[in-house]
Every structure is written in C-alpha cells, then in structure tokens.
Amino acid sequence: MILRPHLKDLKTIGFYLGKIILGLALTMLIPIIIGLCLGEVNPVFDFLIGIEVSVLAGWLLMKVCRTDDDLNWMQGMMVVSISWVVAMILGAIPLYLSGHWKSFLDACFDSMSGFATTGLVLVQNLDHLSYTHNLWRHLIMFLGGQGIVVIALSFFVRGFSGAFKMYVGEARDERIMPNVIHTSRFIWLVSIVYLILGTLALGITGIFNGMKPFNSFFHGACIFMAAFDTGGFAPQSQNILYYHSAIYEIITVVIMVLGAFNFKLHYHLWMGNRKEIIKNIETRALFATIIATFAIVAVGLAQKGSYSGAVMLFRKGFYQLISGHTGTGFQTIYAQQFILDWNQLALSGVILAMALGGAVCSTTGAIKMLRIGILFKALQEDLKRIIMPEKAVIIEKFHHIKEIFLEDKIIRSALTITLAYIILYGLGALVGMFYGYPFLESLFESTSAAANVGLSCGITALTMPAVLKITYIIQMWAGRLEFMSVFAIIGFIVATIKGK
Amino acid sequence: MRNNFKPFLIISGFILIFVPHLAFSQGLSSNELLKNAKQYDGKSIIYSGEVIGDVMSRGEFAWANINDGDNAIGVWMGAALAKEINFTGDYKTRGDVLEIRAEFHRACAEHGGDLDIHAQTLRKITSGERTGHKVDFFKIKLILILLGVLFLVWILSLFRRK
C-alpha cells in the first residue's frame, strides 16, 4: 500500500531544507571576505543580497516547519532533490546581479553547472569578471563536488540517523567510516589537503609561467577546485589554453585523475594500503577504458590529419580525452575545433569516455567505473556459463576494497543506472536535434551535460534555445544525483496521487 | 600599347608574390579565424583586440591573450613587443587595444598544437585605463530592505515564541 504524504512530511522536508539553505548562505561569506579584501564593492553587494535572501529563505523554512522528527527515506531523498534546485537558484542570485549573465536562466544554468561540477558556461565577458564572482563560480564547484548535503552534514549537523539518507541521496552510497558524519569530514579533509598542495603546485607553476604572484595563486586555487572536483570552470574564457603551458596541463591531468578516484580508495591509500590501487576493479576499469577510448581518439585524429606530429596529437587528444573521461571538461582547444579539426571517430571516442566517467563516491558524473566493471564481470560470467559444462558452479567475484561476490542484485542495480544514463544522454540529444543541431554534436553536448563533464563542441552558447538550456539544467541535476532526485520526485508525486 | 602593359605586369607580379601574405590585411575577427583556421593557417593576418589577463614572460618571448569581444587568442611575441603593453584587462582595468600583424597557426608545431598567433609587429590602437565602478545605490537599497525584512521576521519569531 502506498502512503500519501502528509503535511507532517512536508514540514520535515522543509525543516531540513532550511538547515541546508542556511549552510549554503554561510558559504557566501567567503566571496564577501575576498571581495572586501580586494575592494570590489559592487560584487560584495551582490553577495550581501544573495546571503540575505538565503538566510531569509532558510530561516523562514526552519521556523514555519519546525519539527523534532528525524527523516525517513522518502523525506531524505526529497530534501536532497529540492536542495540542489534551491541551491541553483540562490547561487545564481549574485551571478545574475553582476551583469555578466544575460538572463536569470543563464545564471541558473551556470549555477547548476557549477554545483553539479559540469563546467558548461553561458557567462559573458568572463575576462572582466570580478575576482569575487570568479571565486564563487569555482567555490560552488568545490561545494557541489563534495556534495551540498555533505557540507551540512560536516559542519552544521550534530548527528541524526537521517543523515545517511541524505548522504545516499547525493549519489554517495559508500560509507568510508562507520559514521556518515565522520565520512563527510574525511571527504573534506582529503579535499582540503589536496587543495593546499594543488594550489601550491599550480601557483608556483603560474609564477614560473610569467603570471603575477597574486593571479598565479588565485588561478591555482580556482583551477584546483575545478580540476579536483572534476568541474571544468576556469577564471578566463580560454579555459586551460590561457596558460600556454605543458607543465600546467600535466599538473591538471594529475589532479583530474585524483578527483576521479573513489574517496574510499583515497582513504585506503592514505592508510598505507597502496596495493588497493592495483587490485581495485574501478582503477582497473578506468585504466582499460582510458586506453581503449584514447585508441579511438588517436586513430580518428590520425585519419583527419589535424595534428602533424605524434607529440602534438597526444597532447591535444589525450588532454581532451582525460578531461572528458574524468568528467572535468577542461579544454585546450576551442569548442569549434572539435567539429572542424576532429573527425566523427575521434568525437565518438570522447563521447564514449564522457559517458563512462570516473569512480563511484568521487566527484565525477556518468555511469562510473564500478558499474562498468560489474557489467563486464557479468558478461564474463555469462560467457563462462556457455563454455563450461552445465553442472559447473560458476562464482564470479570482484575486488572493490574487499572481495565481493557478483550477485544478481548488484548486476541489476548497475544495469538500471547504466540504462538510465543512456536514456538521459539520448533524450538530451533528441532535444538538440529537434532544434536543428546535427546528431553527433547534439549527442556530444547532451552527454557532456548529463555526465557532468563540461566539454563543449559549441552548442552551449548564449543563443541556444531556452528549452535546450532547461533540458541541460535537468540533465546536469539528474546526472549529478544519479537519478535519485528524479526517482524521489516521481515517487512523491505518485504517492500524493495514488496514496491512501 | 607596350608602355600600358608594363605597369599591369608589375602589378600582377606584385599581387602574385605578395597576395598570400597580404590577402587578409583588412583584419580578421577571432570567429573568422576559428571558422576558417585551415584557410588562414601559416598566413599573415591582422588581428585586433584587448589584451586580457597576464602578459606571461617566457625568456626572450612572451604570451599575451587578446580578446576581440568574441574569443581570446594567444599571441606569441618578442619580449620587446610585450614591453609596449601597459594595461591588461580585468575587472578593474580596460586593457590596451592592439592591432597585431602576425602569422596565424591552426595547430602550432612550436607550441604543442595550440591555435595561436605569432606577432611580427603591433600597434596600440587605444591605451588601456583603470575603470572605475560606480557604487550601485539600487543594490544598497535592496540590501537595506532585505535587512529590514530579516529584522522583522526575527522580531515576529520572538513574539511567536512568547
């Protein structure tokens, strides 16, 4: 029997949503402090307005919906689903007020792109954007990468059993530590340590590249946040091409790959269990798919003959490939070059890499390596069944932190999410084609949005139809939350209509 | 007749020799360059725009990124040319607007396949300047109104508690 949601459910959802909004409001203090230090008056005003609206919304929700009840599964999922949409709207307020986004929809697009660590942009005149706003663009990637709810769990929630329900809702179904709040704090610890190291590495490289010291470290911090959280924003309109530096590219590749690893794997590496990186099904799958997809890209580029030397082909091909595979979206070529200089085979290789993604419980989007590994193992098991005698007992296992038996339940779960992603990629491509864009370009951009990558072949632009902008926003949101959000909202609507 | 033919021959010869290099002397936009990169590859072009970000010194050379309003393209130039740049564009500054005579590369072999421009000469069209941002009083009013609403909600919540 389906139970119809009651007012009490709505109150519980509203109360915890209010808490998360207040948490988000506090994060706006960071750009305000930076803006004050740099004397950027109007940008500080934009964030003061943003923080006031957020505090007002969060506070009102908490007062009106005051409750002592803990969250159940449905409520937890709903809180997460709605909080990402609310975060998009509140995060877009300071962006829109800057005047660099032509409409509030455009600001919402970039805000969702940031929170969902996608990296597609509609910002105008980015090269003259204030440091305050630029920091916010990258900060929302950092916050979204860890998970908006993870922030609330880490810093603003003292502990309640509903925490795990919200944690799972953000596509983080793996607990690194027994307590979900300790897990959230560990995720932050890893990210902050890498943030310091990454910013230092990129900052020093920037100085050697001839950048001003302040800009070097500011860019270093921004690029780190975008790379580790596999986001793909950059402070300048040329993205990584701005730096004209092979070393910068190498460092960002390392950070992107680190960002694509499972936080659980990071934990085991930190604890000295280095063998895990070799044994883990995800790293093995990642290694294999990088080689396979790069082979496709390399053959495509060689056929097209756009790059005269092997080194040039490798530098351009591998960077865009790894950027797509890890779900980052950094580019060292212009969007138009994907269409003009790359052939359909090379583009297909990148689309495939984007569709696959990185590890589960990382900051990447897409199908993810654990599921690909599981599906491969299932295929292997089926092949063995055909080859082996009928009476033979076939038991397949895979290694992911520990040895796990391959059960039908695991395979079904992996297949459901994989199928959901394929449908999402396809639906976005259909909308693109409806507006007259060619098939491969539509599929490229749609996969990039749904897999939270951010590589663009040129469709994402100010002039694209509003419906397509909304489609990509929904894709980014659904893709980041691994459909939990979609399932939760559908479930809630069904329960409201059919429930008793 | 022969005298009339001679200047024609000279002009034709001049065009045949120099056209590949001067065909784009009217100046090209970044969109034209990106769209027709193969056509302009290795050719001399004229490109104009505002210097943005940092001028990155690399020994005897430097990188400057020049934005024409649509896209920014990296320009590789000698350190002496780079010294002529005084302002680079950012939030508080409008950068120098330059006209660059340069060689265009769709995939530069010297720079790992980057699409770039190698400057030969540059001319400053307009000098950059610090741009003052006027304080937006509408935003101040909005901040005060929202602060008032927040205060009101706080007062009401105190009454409700009592």
The amount of helix of chain A comes to 55-70%
Low-pLDDT stretches of chain B are: 19-23
* Total number of helices of chain B: 5
The CATH C-level class name of the largest domain in chain B: Mainly Beta
Write out the strand line-up for the largest beta sheet of chain B, numbering strands in chain order: 1-2-3-6-5
Biggest sheet of chain A, in brief? 2 strands, antiparallel
Domains of chain B, number: 2
Which CATH architecture of the largest domain in chain B is right? Answer: Beta Barrel
What integer is the average pLDDT of chain B?
87
Low-pLDDT ranges of chain A: none
CATH topology term of the largest domain in chain B: OB fold (Dihydrolipoamide Acetyltransferase, E2P)
* Quaternary structure type: heterodimer
In total, the number of strands of chain B is: 7
Q: What is the radius of gyration of chain B computed over CA atoms, rounded to a whole number of angstroms?
A: 26 Å
Chain pair sharing the greatest interface: A-B, 50 and 47 residues
Strand content of chain A: under 5%
Which structural class do the helices and strands of chain A define? mainly alpha
Overview of the structural elements:
- The complex is a heterodimer of chains A (500) and B (162).
- Chain A is an all-alpha fold and 500 residues long.
- Helix content of chain A is 69%, strand content 2%.
- Chain B has 162 residues and is α+β, with helices and mostly antiparallel strands.
- Chain B folds into 2 domains: 23-130, Beta Barrel (OB fold (Dihydrolipoamide Acetyltransferase, E2P)), CATH 2.40.50; 136-162.
- In chain B, 37% of the residues lie in helices and 33% in strands.
- Chain B has 5 helices and 7 strands, in the order αααβββαββββα.
- In chain B, β1 (44-58) and β2 (61-67) form a beta hairpin.
- The longest helix of chain B has 25 residues, at 137-161.
- Chain B is elongated and about 100 Å long.
- Chains A and B meet through α3, α15 and α16 of A and β1, β2, β3 and α5 of B.
